[in-house]
Amino acid sequence: MKREPIFLNILKNDKGGKIVLSTLGVVVFVVAFCNLFMPQDSIFYISTFTVTILGKYLAFALLALALDLVWGYLGVLSLGHGAFFALGGYAWAMYLMRQIGDRGVYGNPDLPDFMVFMNLKELPWFWQGFDNPIFAFLMVMLVPALLAFVFGYLAFKSRVTGVYLSIITQALTYALMLAFFRNDMGFGGNNGLTDFKDILGFDLSLDSTRVGLLIITFIALVIGYFICRFIMNSKLGRVIISIRDAESRVRFIGYKVEQYKLFIFIVSAVLAAIAGALYVPQVGIINPSVFSPLFSIELVIWVAVGGRGTLYGAIIGAIVVSFASTYFTSALPEVWLYALGGLFVVSTLYLPKGIVGVFEKLKVKKEA
Amino acid sequence: MKFLKIILLNLLLLTFCFGSSFEEDSSKLMTRSFNKKQVVLDELLNKYKDDARFETLLKYMLKGDLYYTKKDKRLVVLLKKVEYSYFTQDLLTSKNLEKKEKYDFKKIKINNKLRSVIKAALAQINLFSTNKDKRYSAAKNILSNLEKEDEVLINKALQIEKVVSVKELLLESKINLIALYSTNLEQRVEAVKKLGSYMSSRTFETLKNIENSSDEKILKDEAKKALGTIKHKKSFYGVIQELFFGLSLGSVLLLAAIGLAITFGVMKVINMAHGELIMIGAYTTYTIQQLMPNLIEYSVIIAIPAAFVVSGLVGVLIERLVIRHLYGRPLETLLATFGISLILQQLVRSIYSPLNQEVKTPSWMSGAMEINSSLFLTYNRLYIIIFALIVFFGVLFVMKKTSLGLKVRAVSQNRTIARAMGIKSSYIDALTFGIGSGIAGIAGVALSQLTNVGPNLGQAYIVDSFMVVVFGGVGNLWGTLIAAFSLGEINKFIEPVAGAVLAKVIILVFIILFIQKRPRGLFPQKGRDAED
Question: Going by C-beta distance under 8 Å and a sequence separation of 6 or more, which residues neighbour residue B292?
Answer without folding.
Answer: B299, B302
